[in-house]
Amino acid sequence: MLEIDLNFVVIFILVWILVLVLARVFFRPILSLREKRKKILSDNEKAYRQALKEYEDHLNQVENRLKEARQESQSIRQKIVSEAMARKSRLTLDIQNEVQGQVEDVRKQLLDEVEKLKTQLNWQADDLARKLEEKLLQ
After folding, report:
1. Distance between alpha carbon 33 and the CA centroid of its chain, in Å?
2. Between the CA of residue 85 and those of 36, 42, 81, 88, 98, what are the distances in Å?
3. pTM for this one?
4. Which partner from 4, 15, 50, 121 sits 20 to 30 angstroms from 106, CA to CA?
5. How far is CA 137 from each of CA 6, 123, 128, rounded to the nearest angstrom?
């Protein structure tokens, strides 16, 4: 059978002392350092996600403001276009009225001129008729 001698017991105790010493001196600091790194990584990941969320929120706000600004500029553009069209219509009507007034004035002037010319023609026709009559009678 197997005999347990004193060397085995001493080596067994030394191995356990070595395990305890290594655990306290070597493994605990490494494990605590590993836990600190995990905590730092976890905190960094949380900060990254928070920053990403804030960035997305800010981006959404900017996009909404841009959309509102585009809508506002579109409405301002429509307003300016409609005002320009109304002004164009008013100007067109004013010009048409002015042109009609001028046409009426010119028509009156032409009628007056035609009347004067008719009167002159009648006088000249009468004068020519008298002269012709005198020549024929002579």
Report:
1. 53
2. 72, 63, 6, 5, 20
3. 0.48
4. 121
5. 186, 21, 14
Residue 54: exposed, middle, or buried by beta-carbon count in 10 A (0-12, 13-18, 19+)?
exposed
* DSSP symbols for 46-114: HHHHHHHHHHHHHHHHHHHHHHHHHHHHHHHHHHHHHHHHHHHHHHHHHHHHHHHHHHHHHHHHHHHHH
